[in-house]
Every structure is written in C-alpha cells, then in structure tokens.
C-alpha cells in the first residue's frame, strides 16, 4: 500500500507542476494577443467572461502574480477554462467535452486493437522464431515507416475516391441526429473505419516488434525451461510463462500511448476532418483562440498524467517486484 | 486429498510418509541390475552449420533404481548439456545427434525418451523424471507466487485435482524440504537463495518422480547451506525412494551423497565406479587429479594440487585422448587413439567399474602398433 501512496504523492506533485507551467507560459509569452482579441470582440464578451480571461491570462496588472495564481487554481478546480473565442460564447470545457469522446473513442479503440493484435502476433512470432513467421516483420515494419499522413492520403484516395467504399471525411452521416440508435452508431463505425485502419496499420509494427523481442529474451529464461520441464502444455508455457513476463514492458508503453492519443492524433483528425480534440486544437491555433488552446493543452497534460498513473498501477499489479521498493 | 501415487496410496498419508512408497532403496552394490534410466551413446552438437562442436560424444550412463549417481567434471565439460539432452530441453543451437535415453517405469515398461512424441513427452515430464536446474535463482517465475508455481505442475498432470488441493499438496511439499507452508504465498524475490533452492527441490518432488536430475543444486550457496541441502536430498531419497543424478564440479560433495560416481571430461565419461572406489582407488589420471584439487569435506586432509593446464577447446579436439596434454601418465599411444571405457587393468577390481584410459587398455594400444605401458601405482591403489 505504501507503494501506491508514494506514487500518488508523486502524481499530485506532477499535476501541480503541470498546472503551474500552464499558468506561467501565457504570462511569459511576449506581446499581448489576448488584449487585442478582447478589443476586437468588444461588447461580445460579457464582463464576467472578461474577468475570467483576465485571471486565466494574467491581464490583471493590478493584481499580484501570486493572487493571479490562486485565482487560476480556483478556476481550474471549478472546471472553468474560460470561453472560446472561435465558438463564442461556448465555454472551453464544453468544446472539449464535445471533442474528447470522438478522439478517445476512435483512436482509443484503434490503439487497443493495434496493441492486442500486435502483441498476439508478436507472441507467436517470438515463440516460433526462425520460422516463416519472421517474414511478417519486414512487411509490418514497412507500413510503420511510411509517414502517417502519406499512408492516410493513400488510403483515402484508394478506398474513398477510387473505390468509394468509405467516406473520405467526417465522423458520421450529417443527416442523422446523434442518438444511441443502431443507425447512428453504425454510421459512426462506418465513418471511423478508415481512420482507425490507418492508425492500426501504422502503429502495429511497433507492438509486434516489441513483443517479439521480449518473447525471444524471455523464452531463454530458466523459469520458462522449468515450465517446459514440468510438462505444462505448450499453450500454458507460451502464455502463462513466456508471454506473461514478456508483456510487462508492452503494458507500460501501451498506457503511455493511450496518454498520447489526445495529443497525438492531430494529423489523423486533420486529414480525415474528424472533429476530435486534435482538429479543434488545429482550428484554435489557426484562429489564435488562446483559451481553447490552453484548455486543450491542459487536457493533454492530464491525459498523459492519467495514463502514467494507470501504467504504474497496472505494472504494480502485474509485477510483484515493483511493489517492493525500499 | 484425491491425488494418489502410482501405487494408489494417497499422498499425505497421515500415518506414514508424506509421499509415495517407503524406502525401496537398493543397496549400492547389488549384483542384480535394475536400471531406471539408461543413457546410451548420447551425442550432442552445438551449432547446425558447417562445423558443429561435438559437446557430448557417445556418453553412456546407467542409473539404478534408488541410487544416487554423481556426475562430476570441470566447468564446461558438458554436464548440464547431458542433463538438458536427457530431458529433451536442450536450447538451440544444441542438437541431439544420436543415442537413446531409456526410462524404465516401476511396472517394467521401458520407453526411449528421445523417441516420444510431443504429447507423450509432456505427460512423462515431471511425472517420471524431474529436474532441478543449475540456476535455481532464476528457475522461479518472478511474477507468480511460489505456491502457484508448484501447483500448476501438479494440475498439468492431474487435471482432476482442484487448485485448493494442489496448494495443500504444495504446502506439504514445502514442509518436506523444511520451509514453512505460509511461504506458499511468497513471491520468489521474497525468498533467500537457499529457500529458492529448496522450493525447486520441493517442486521437483511434486509428482513423486522416479528420477531426479539435479544440476549443481548447491553451487550458489554457502558451505553450511550446501551441507544442509545435500543431507536433505539424501534423507528424502531414503524416505521416498527416487533415484538421483547429482551433477556437480565438486567431487568432495559427491563422496557425501553418491552411491556411484561418473567422472566426465571434455564431453565423455572417463571413469564410472562406486563412490568409495572413485574416492579411494581412482583409476583414471583425471579422476585422481580432480580429487586432489578439492579439500575433502571430512576425513584426513590431503595435499591439494590442482590440475595443470585447462580443459581443451571442444571445437578443436583431434583424435587421441583429450586429457593427454594435462596428463602425467601420457605416452605415445595417447595421441593416436581416444580410449574407450573398459574394465580397469587392476586385478580384483569391482567388475562393474570402468575407465577410459590407455594405461588400462593394452589391447587398444597394440592395435595402433604401440608398446603398452603398465598401470602406474598411483592409478592402481587397492
Ligand atoms: N549455445 C552454445 N553454443 C556453443 N557451445 C555451447 C553452447 N552452450 C554450451 N556450449 C559449450 O558446451 C560445453 C558444455 O557446456 P555445459 O553447460 O554443459 O557445461 P557444464 O559441464 O555444465 O559446466 P558448468 O560446470 O560450468 O555448469 C561448453 O564447453 C560450452 O562451451
Ligand atoms: Mg552446468
């Protein structure tokens, strides 16, 4: 239990540091684009929102930095991230709330699929190293070395433009109303298939290779030989002893890659015009929508942090040795 | 408990011994041979390509039922390779190139382990022949509790046994080797080296095997722990009646426990005799030198000499005796013929002992047109 408590403290401190940096950066930026934007939108931003913006961006020159810092924490803890300029007067939190499920849903599922299939293939190839199965490696490595936007563009031109099997952009049929109906969910899956495919294809090689190499290493461990000597079935040795230990490093990189989903899907969402968090970040940057940008950065930071916590926790559950540090 | 030994006796009999049958140990020198494991002309190469290294060359060994057979030799002579090959656990690039490993069950049926198919092999492993590996430190999976690792071996062979029963049985096994049963819930890293070693021994005894191969089970431990474990193995053998191949490079340890000792040099058996004979009347120059390179654990001290030179590179062995460069008794014929195991040329010796040295084999010397030399007094002590 002490292990988890110690880790918890570590994350509280990391969270504090992340928020503090997020607080400081706009204040350290040269120039004052925010004042200019407020001036430009004069009258359309309510006095309340202006107040919040001032606190978020440190425009309150008559308030000490320390007081600003405290106010900023107050806003964050109340879940207030200001009001988006581009989607005025929608609060940033609402914009993020709309975008996040799409990103997490699509990229999250694609990453889970890629991890699961890649790890299983890697297990098989690593277990039977030196057979025909090894020839799968160069193929998958080829796809992962193609730049992602290139792969995505080829997929679009082939499967949407030429063959017309899948839509080239968007996340669901715009003529449908978003509900939990079969029709709508089916449309979401249909629209998400191509982007998900490209993510899986470009990322699976990493999982295959990582797992294969760990399997090769672990297969020569004495405890695997002992498991063989005990006469366990091949499946039991392969999954229960070899893969069970080989998967440990995979699990931590998996959790980390989940954390990077939120920030790392910019290119995919732009190419496929998929309105997830990356797409909104892109438009926010283009429109100099500082509140939205800052809000998204905070969400990205939190996602990475959260993924780290999950990774630590899962690792602690899977590997008893990590629970026992001095 | 529903697990029964091959005799139909339940394990963990509250009155008697916790395992299998009582003492069926055959005295070491019975004239009637009742082998449980016979290794015949086993050869192993490392490397598949052009010129593989012949690490084991025509090794033959017989393990009698209830006997402790010690296998000794310098580091790198192929002891572990023999253990791995006999259990078909040889890691690549090792390859068994010939020979037989005959296992005779209690009911008298004999099977060649090297010719079993995959399913038969898995069924036979641990049940007939269990092994304790050299690296006991790494023999336990670090992510599973000790109890689970003992239990899964039991359940792999006795699917009808529940996990709870298998764990109860594991607890008995731990007690058998002197570890508190609550250690079942420990992870390997929470145990000391000696405890892990005992856990491995307990695990090997889980299915009441007839043969136990122990590859340097005590090498990583201090002398006191070594003694304890060796005594424990001897004690368990007396109680449970299994047969042991005990591998070590420390001959003095074998004198303590073994009934018979085989001395290995550069991938070949060079001497095979009753323990006392090897100790007091070595016939091979290498056995004699090996004995003088270790302090005896008990008995009078003797001068330690060590063996001059170092073991030959197995990939560069030509014809002739591999030991000749380090041998004080080498003569012309030694570079021409590689000696085979023969009865020693010393009248009155135990007829079951054998030695591979040209000093004892005048016929082979004459066959290559050389003049045989007599057995030196150092190698013909009575
Ligand atoms: N993978 C391999 N490739 C080539 N040669 C090998 C390989 N593994 C072992 N050998 C050689 O096989 C020989 C026998 O090795 P083995 O491990 O059986 O020795 P050992 O008698 O058990 O030694 P020790 O007392 O140190 O455990 C050694 O000379 C070693 O160099
Ligand atoms: Mg060895």
Automatic annotation (TrEMBL), chain A:
The protein's name in its UniProt record: Peptide/nickel transport system permease protein
PANTHER family to which the protein is assigned, alphabetical: OLIGOPEPTIDE TRANSPORT SYSTEM PERMEASE PROTEIN (PTHR43376:SF1)
Transmembrane regions listed in the UniProt entry: 7-25, 99-127, 148-168, 188-209, 254-275, 295-318
Membrane topology type: Multi-pass membrane protein
A Pfam family recorded for this sequence: BPD_transp_1
InterPro entries reported for this sequence: MetI-like, MetI-like_sf
Protein's organism: Agromyces ramosus
GO biological process, one term: transmembrane transport
Keywords: Membrane, Transmembrane, Transmembrane helix, Transport
GO cellular component assignments: plasma membrane
Gene3D superfamilies: MetI-like
Classification via PROSITE patterns: ABC_TM1
Domain named ABC transmembrane type-1: residues: 100-311
Localisation: Cell membrane; Membrane
Family to which this protein belongs: Belongs to the binding-protein-dependent transport system permease family.
UniProtKB/TrEMBL annotation, chain B:
Alphabetical list of Gene3D superfamilies matching this protein: P-loop containing nucleotide triphosphate hydrolases
Alphabetized GO MF terms: ATP binding; ATP hydrolysis activity
Keyword terms of this UniProt record: ATP-binding, Cell membrane, Membrane, Nucleotide-binding, Transport
Keyword Hydrolase: no
Residues making up the signal peptide according to the UniProt record: none
Domain ABC transporter: 39-291
A biological-process GO annotation: peptide transport
Membrane topology: Peripheral membrane protein
Subcellular compartments: Cell membrane
Top-level taxon in the UniProt lineage: Bacteria
SMART domains from the UniProt entry: AAA
GO (cellular component) term, any one: plasma membrane
Main location: membrane
Family the UniProt entry places it in: Belongs to the ABC transporter superfamily.
PANTHER family recorded: DIPEPTIDE TRANSPORT ATP-BINDING PROTEIN DPPD, OLIGOPEPTIDE TRANSPORT ATP-BINDING PROTEIN APPD
NCBIfam families named in the record: oligo_HPY (TIGR01727)
Listed name of the protein: Peptide/nickel transport system ATP-binding protein
